[in-house]
């Protein structure tokens, strides 16, 4: 979707007044509205004649791949990028029983399991993010994710004893990958890895690599608001990506200027549960089992999708002060934070990347 000035936006879908990422379980009732938004966004673009655009439902969201160049090569390149995203989904899906990740989770508390080397490498990388964030990012949050059920259908509000029981099975230090042997172990039955906060960024990185193999030097991939840019839209024209205003669906709070960067936003407006007039969102704090507090949205610009994706979640969980410190201490990364009062905060080097709209 685009703002009135042609700026690329994440792909929000409004349900009962709440903005959500496309969810495969809600696709039937959302798809018509989604395609209307897509078609509106695709029209009126000055450069549309030279840009090939395709959209597919992948990783539980609508993925739009925009490739500049000759049509025949662009079509083949976009298809290759989509295949890479599908391949990563089949490795990392928390919900597909056939995924390589689900095979690991199914054998928690039992013998070591041999697994795909690529998946093991991604798990090891996620554990490094967990260590670097002091556990604010934790791939073992699977048991907590399951009881809230935000990403697999209708969310539910779990009882406090359910949360306590789930938290007993969370702890990134307990995961035992052996990259050399190609095996991994989750030592306690009921433990579960959930790579939802890093897998989409990884998929974007692999999709960008696929485009490069076709000689593509200008492209943008938008996976439900997680975006990666290749080169520029046109010579001396960087890609312009809108950052959604968490208080105003379909409006932007800032425009990010990106070249060969990934930009990922984690927001509390994507998947929401209302209970006793209180909003509970899907970004869970692995330290207490409840939705993280203090921020409405975090937007990270980084050289790669993995870093942007994982850091967006970690910063959101850390909150405004500790989260900004984390951004400042991470090389090559900048960020925009929106707190509960709607106040925008930019990291020290972000002024050249973001144009605030209010």
Task: Break the fold down into its secondary structure elements and pairings.
Layout lengths: L12 E3 L2 E3 L6 H16 L8 E8 L2 E8 L2 H22 L7 H7 L6 E2 L2 H16 L9 H7 L11 H8 L8 E3 L4 E3 L13 H15 L5 E5 L2 E5 L8 E7 L2 E11 L3 E6 L4 E4 L2 E4 L13 E8 L2 H14 L1 H9 L5 E6 L4 E3 L7 E3 L2
Antiparallel strand pairs: 1-2, 3-4, 4-8, 5-7, 6-7, 8-9, 9-12, 10-11, 11-18, 12-15, 13-14, 15-16, 16-17
Helix pairs in contact: 2-7, 7-8, 8-9
What would your notes on this structure say?
There is one protein chain. By secondary structure, the protein is α+β, with helices and mostly antiparallel strands. The protein has a domain at 13-70 and 217-356: ApbE-like domains (T-fold, Roll). Helix content is 32%, strand content 26%. It contains nine helices and 18 strands. The protein has helices spanning 27-42, 71-92, 100-106, 117-132, 142-148, 160-167, 199-213, 305-318, 320-328; strands at residues 13-15, 18-20, 51-58, 61-68, 113-114, 176-178, 183-185, 219-223, 226-230, 239-245, 248-258, 262-267, 272-275, 278-281, 295-302, 334-339, 344-346, 354-356. The protein has an eight-stranded antiparallel sheet, with helices on one face. Strands 5-7-6 form a three-stranded antiparallel sheet, covered by helices on one side. Helix 2 (71-92) runs antiparallel to helix 7 (199-213), helix 7 packs antiparallel against helix 8 (305-318) and helix 8 (305-318) packs antiparallel against helix 9. The longest helix is centred in the first third of the chain and has 22 residues, at 71-92. It is globular and about 55 Å long.
């Amino acid at each position: 979707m685009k703002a009135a000035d042609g700026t690329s936006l994440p792909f929000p879908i409004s349900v009962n007044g709440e903005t959500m990422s496309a969810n495969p379980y809600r696709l039937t009732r959302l798809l018509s509205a989604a395609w209307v938004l897509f078609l509106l966004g695709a029209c009126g673009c000055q450069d549309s004649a030279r840009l090939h655009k395709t959209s597919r439902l992948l990783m539980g969201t609508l993925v739009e791949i925009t490739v500049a160049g000759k049509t025949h090569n662009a079509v083949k390149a976009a298809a290759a990028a989509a295949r890479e995203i599908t391949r990563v989904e089949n490795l990392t899906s928390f919900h597909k029983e056939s995924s390589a990740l689900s095979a690991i989770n199914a054998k928690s508390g039992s013998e070591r399991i041999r697994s795909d080397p690529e998946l093991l490498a991604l798990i090891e990388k996620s554990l490094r993010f967990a260590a670097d964030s002091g556990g604010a990012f934790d791939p073992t949050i699977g048991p907590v994710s399951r009881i809230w059920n935000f990403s697999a259908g209708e969310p539910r509000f779990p009882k406090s004893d359910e949360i306590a029981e789930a938290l007993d099975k969370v702890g990134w230090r307990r995961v035992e990958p052996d990259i050399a042997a190609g095996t991994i172990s989750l030592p306690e039955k009921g433990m579960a890895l959930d790579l939802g906060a890093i897998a989409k960024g990884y998929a974007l990185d692999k999709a960008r690599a696929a485009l490069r193999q076709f000689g593509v030097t200008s492209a943008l991939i938008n996976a439900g608001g997680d975006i990666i840019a290749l080169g520029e839209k046109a010579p001396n024209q960087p890609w312009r990506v809108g950052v959604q205003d968490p208080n105003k669906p379909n409006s932007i709070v800032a425009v990010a200027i990106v070249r060969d960067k990934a930009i990922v936003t984690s927001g509390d407006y994507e998947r929401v549960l209302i209970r006793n007039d209180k909003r509970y969102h899907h970004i869970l704090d692995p330290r207490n089992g409840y939705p993280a507090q203090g921020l409405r949205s975090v937007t990270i610009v980084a050289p790669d999708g993995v870093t942007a994706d994982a850091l967006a979640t970690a910063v959101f969980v850390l909150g405004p002060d500790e989260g900004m410190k984390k951004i400042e201490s991470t090389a090559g990364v900048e960020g925009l934070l929106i707190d509960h009062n709607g106040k925008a905060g930019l990291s020290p080097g972000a002024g050249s990347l973001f144009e605030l709209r209010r």
